[in-house]
Amino acid sequence: KPLENKNIPLSIRSFINTNNSGSSIRAIFEKEKKITSIIYKPNQVLLSISAKDYSFIFEKHISEIFSVFSKTGLKVHLMQNSALNFSVCGIISNKSLLILVSELQKNYIVKYNNKVNLLTIRNFKNLNIPKSLKNQEILIQQRSRTTIRYVLK
Questions:
Q1: pTM for this structure?
Q2: In this predicted model, what pLDDT tens digit does every residue of 111-129 receive, in sequence order?
């Protein structure tokens, strides 16, 4: 970042293959930032959490839920909140998942799907899922100004 701030390019070359010209890292210009990139994270878990009394999910609930995530090691990659439901997609070991679900079920209704896939498309040009993933069911679709994300099963 300090080199980028001063517009100084960084050249990287191999010490082993000195004949190779290497790579150059430089500042990204505004129009280059519009390149579409796809990030695919397989084997995630999708949790849908709601209050047992069907009350709204407030900050207090989310704080309690994240405390359980922290204790059990869930790495969150996507969150979606509605008035009655809080959904999270992330990665956790199978053993820890059972502990996580057991802890959450003390105060919440918990539904989950194992082995879901998270697809993120930055700077999307259209809303189409890549052809290789079209046969998967969309469990969650989340869209912002520049990014679209799918949880697929």
A1: 0.76
A2: 999 999 999 998 887 766 7
